[in-house]
């Protein structure tokens, strides 16, 4: 009597335990897949690229975080929503052409986005302004055109922005003054025009400011001389007024390289 009651109790405990593990500790079962909205975004991103060398063939199978899609790195642990999230997209030098899909903006946990040295054309999608965790954005060495979206100026965690060697035109957005963590701003060899917004000179952590070989005009902002962090300024081959660098630039104590301009 007593024994079978204990047995029944044991069985029931096991059932309760299984229920508990299934519903209350989801990391043991349900969580080991990538957030479906991020999977859909990657599929749209692939569809928007032209990939003549089939370098993205691994993106046709399984789950991005579990099946080792080339160039994809994920956070190891699932987050509070019980899905895995994409941390990095690194697709450098894969002979990709086509365009950057607006769906990049759905990879909301992304910290590193690197598509440098490909042949990607079209414009920079303004949706990239959704990537609030982004620290590194490398788009250099492509054929990107159009102007820089204002939205990039609201990526407060961005530390490195490389857009050099593209065909970007239009002005430097004023919103870039908000990039308070920016250290490396590389935008040389484009067709960027207009004046350098003076507030950009006050970015508190700026180390490299490369804007040579563009179509900038107006006067060079004397504000640069207040920087305590700048190591390299390159502004040669633009259309600035005047023929010499403001003498105040000589006061920038940290400076190791200042290119001439004409
Ligand atoms: C790069 O793509 C072009 C076609 O767009 C192709 O002709 C060429 O062979 C590819 N290069 C490599 C290294 O796969
Ligand atoms: C994630 O995995 C890497 C190695 O694959 C390891 O070095 C790192 O500590 C892990 N991070 C966490 C939070 O588990
Ligand atoms: C891709 O760009 C490289 C230079 O970056 C160039 O040599 C190559 O011909 C381009 N390929 C295509 C298919 O446009
Ligand atoms: C930038 O443009 C200049 C002038 O056309 C050219 O001499 C230089 O090689 C370019 N730099 C790079 C890194 O392509
Ligand atoms: C540079 O800007 C001037 C106007 O300031 C324009 O006339 C010229 O076409 C631009 N050049 C290039 C290469 O974009």
UniProtKB/TrEMBL annotation:
It holds the Pfam family LRRNT_2. It catalyses: L-seryl-[protein] + ATP = O-phospho-L-seryl-[protein] + ADP + H(+); L-threonyl-[protein] + ATP = O-phospho-L-threonyl-[protein] + ADP + H(+). Keywords: Leucine-rich repeat, Receptor, Repeat, Signal. GO terms for molecular function: protein serine/threonine kinase activity. The keyword Repeat applies. SUPFAM superfamilies: L domain-like. Residues 36-74 form the Leucine-rich repeat-containing N-terminal plant-type domain. The keyword Repeat applies. This is Leucine-rich repeat-containing N-terminal plant-type domain-containing protein. It comes from Zostera marina. The lineage of its organism: Eukaryota, Viridiplantae, Streptophyta, Embryophyta, Tracheophyta.
